[in-house]
## 1
Amino acid sequence: MTDPVLLSSPDALVLVHQAGAVRRLTLNRPAALNSFTGALHAELLAALDAAAADPAVRALLLTGAGRGFCAGQDLNDPAMAAGPDGRVDVGAVIDAHYRPLVLRLQLMPVPVVCAVNGVAAGAGANVALACDLVLAAESASFIQAFSRIGLVPDAGGTWLLPRLLGRQRALGLALTGDKLGAAAAAQMGLIWQVHPDADLPAAAQALAGRLAALPVRALALTRQAFDQAQSLSLDGALQLEARLQRELGHAPDFAEGVAAFREKRPARFSDR
């Protein structure tokens, strides 16, 4: 495995490493369980944009430093301060930070793996779930903490949770705010896999590397097709499939995949 190269400052709020074709982004506010601030949002969005624009990146891995993935919004951040009327405009924080972040994740041109190394609470949980494949450490937990402070799930939670779990389980987690352990999250279909804590970094890196070796343009369009098909009729989904297959069928990766199959050799994919 290629040794990761640090591309950011070692004290950045988002550590950026490159190992082969995998770009790893690490939320780096461990003393605050990597809770979101405006500054962290700015660095993370910039890092995601840079990864999207870099042809050397064929898969993305998102994780957290220290003992947690992300505890959600930092309530001490200046963005959460009350205005002149004495009220906090939480909607403005969503519009300014979480909406661009979640949409950026959904539109990444490469597959996105999230390694949840500890607690993922509130918006932190839903940002993790917005990634394509979520792996978690055995000690990790997921908490929809919004009801405890009089809010609804955000960072895409109202869209993601019912689709992943169904209405009853989604409502159960959102209304109670109960902690969900990693094993239970995997059993319910909320996440992809659980690994022993010590094995999670290597497992996540290996999965991201495996995805990077596949035709990543097709993987990104698979995500798009799944998301769009949720609001389509069966006939609409079939038409979407035809359009995407026409596009991919004209691309070099399809020709390479067919040639490799016929020649009984590993494929060398290059589309992005």
## 2
Amino acid sequence: MNEFLEHPAVQGGVAPFVVALVVAVLLARTRYAWLAVVAGYVTAVAMSTGVSLSPLTATRKVLLLTLAVAVVGIVLDLVGPRARSVAAVLAAIAGAAALWAFWSVLGQREGAALWTGAVSVALFAAAMAALVMSLRNDPLRVAAATLGLGLATGVAAVISASIGFLLAGTAVAAAAGALLLVAVVTSRPVTAGFLGTLTVGTMIALFAEGASLLAQMPWYATLSLLLVPIAVRLPVNERWGTFKRAFVLALYALAAASVPIAAAWYAARAASS
């Protein structure tokens, strides 16, 4: 039994999917169904390394920030801010959060390399958060983007020698699959709001930057992840049923996800030759 529970496919796929599915079903009629994504990720962490915040390493900061942005998302959805500047402020906060998470790694650099790295980390996190938040009123597009981003990040991470972020990424993809399944079965997709989009955007940015800074994911693979939330903006016929729209949007996301995966594979192959 222990061998089964310790298998990466169980820790990063099966268990997060089951937990996320339970959460999504229980909260299907509320905006809190998007907590399924957080539940899936926390499940993967709990089964692989255990949930702990001490000592506060970069990877543990990622977990802490995931929980924090979920709380921020819940509060914002309850308050219902209408100002257009809110998303921009949140994107900037996501960039600052990424800097905090990885400052111990960036701080080992000197001079121009330090500041170039810091600016790149902040801008990527802000851009990813902004792109995903721009989808917040279309739950199927958010779920499809989450599926593609999780899968792309996880596969690219393992190709780049990061098992930890493989599990994190695939857990998010599995949770997105659970949300899509519930949406299709009930034909009632739950609006993602800031809870879903700020959380997903920040999580994926942190996973990708972690795989880049702590492992070997090339910068161009990380950057190309931004194609996924852009791809799901492609048109679909709004008269189609939930299943057909979800299927087409998932295809858009998976097609875009193939780009960072291919980039990571190319870099790994070039490094080994």
